[in-house]
Amino acid sequence: MKVIIIDDEARARKSIADLLKFSPQDISLVAEAESVASGFAVITTHKPDLIFLDINMPDGTGFDLLKKLDNINFKIIFITAYEEYAVQAFEFSAIDYILKPVDPTKLFEAINRAHQLVEQENISLKLNALFANLENSASENKKLILKTSESIYVVNTDDIIRCESDAGYTQFYLLDDKRIIVSCNLKDYEEMLDGYGFYRIHQSHLINLKYIDHYSKTEGGAVVMKDNSELPVARRKKESFLKLLEMI
Question: Strand, helix or coil at 103?
Fold first, then answer.
């Protein structure tokens, strides 16, 4: 892979460049840049397979650089010291990033994921979701990228009624009776959606609180959702969940 590092900190560039020498993948560092302008120039000249891209630079941001490009046909690993809300935006948008100071293990894991991607997986789709999430950081409605074996979906979190665990997979139940199955654990989405109106009522069920229809006290208690699904509430969750309902 032809690689470019774009970061305004010389020390950060050197750190990544030194680590790349030990990468298990076949890496060729073809250029470095320290700004949006110089980054645009080296990308245009060298046509890389992968870039490490800093967020904040003297003449703009890494996002500004990407918006200047007519065609993004390379893989991207962002380098960021951003606050938590921005990190969440990357995770919602399924875009790879590593935090400063760079951890060698995280770096090599990100390179390995980039190397395994056969194609770009519609990077523009992911970037549009990322830009929307960053611009609407205060909103609870986020753009969530869901990848299946055949497609990539951009889903508004407000459109998710519930998520159900199924043997290492997670099934999303959306408005309009749409369903999407992804090969990720429910716990990953529980952590990602924490603070966005979702609650895990059972080891197999994560629900969007806004789509609760009512709580049934029969058979030990169950939640009936707006899609008419009836879901069990784990015994250890029952007390805290009932208190939460009183607050809605």
Answer: coil
